[in-house]
Amino acid sequence: MNTFINEICTRPEKSENEKIPSGAITGNGDIAVMADDEKDDFLVRISKRGFRKFDASYPEGVTESVGSIRIGNAGLEKYHIIQNMRQGLLVCEFSNANIELFVSSDNNIIYIELSSPDNGSFPSFDIEIPETSGSRNFSCSDNGIKWFLKKYDGKSVTKESAVAVCCRRLETKRIDGIKSVRFCVAAASNFDSTDYVSKSISLALNADYEFDKIRTKEHWQEFFSNSGVSLPFEDIEKIYNGSLYLSACRIENKDLSRLSLFGSATVDDRPILQTISSSGKKNLKIARYVYFSRERRFKDDNSFLFLPRAAMLGVNPDYIIKKMKRNIKKFSLPNMIFNHANGCMEYLSSVPSAVNEMLMRSRDGIIKVFPGWNKNENASFNNLMADGGFLVSASLKKGKIDSLKIKSLEGRACRAEIPENVRISVKKPDGKRVKFKKTNNYIEFKTEKNESYILI
How far apart are CA 12 and CA 292, in angstroms? Predict the structure, then answer.
């Protein structure tokens, strides 16, 4: 199974929490699009981060709906969409149309290729920018480019906020009775550029479908090669990858979207669960008692919040995996977002945080690999971030840790736990040995900035 491919074979349905999207998603961190439908029309909902700044609670703005691309007569009685995460691509197959869709990783341009039999009933293509939240809208058409302006001003916003959207038909091809038309839709806000209308028009005029498709594919391949995990549980690995992908599609700051770079990214309101690693066996026992005594861990959104906490506490890994699988089956929507009663995107951190904590831990400044993992289950990870500025990679096979590599980003001294029944040595990739000091069950050695060290 390719855990970077997600197939959606049912039309989007409204979740219990209507704020949670259920359609296929892609984006570049600033512009995001979601598949939706209305009767027999296929809709591509467009949202943009931070262009409507209102209320002191949201000084940087919020993700706001811009409008939709409407493709009529697509024939949705047949519905099949592939979310290709390693390419940032949505491939849609309907009764009367095949659609390829992606958002450029370099620019705020949405590309769509619409293909259908050239028999006179070719699907229609329109842009809809409705008035929302008190916006004022304008539209214009010039030299083959349609552009729309959505503006918020007055008392409803703390700063005048506006976005310009331009649509351009790129090319038309006919091959073997199939007509294919390519479109681009570009967007820019007044926070992107003071002359945002001209910027959006310029993006549309200079759009290059093939070039941006290659660049977007390269971006996502690099994104996933930076760090990741290999697990024996395909459903969990798929949600892990999907959580990273969806976060990056919707989070403008790419550094914040790399959930897999962090050994643990959870926040807990109970200090006892935050400090257990340095509190001794007694407090660890108390913390576990508190965890199992709270029935909230089984209820809706709390169930996922408690999974990373269980990993932090060293709860039986088989128990955690069982509950994780249960939550994926019960709450995961077809697009891999979780349908919980409160919140939406924040739950994407739950599976990566719990898995990372089981695979690698570095509290107290000591790197431990597979501390909360069932040693009978093969697994591996690369470049999980440890305290002190270290990227850690390791592999577990047949109950034995057979590789451990640490890259020092800051040149600090490194301390690592010695795995059971494993002989440790420290050397650089060129084979040069590095001196280390052994104390109890861990080793310590000096590092150089941006240097890698092989321990197993």
Answer: 36
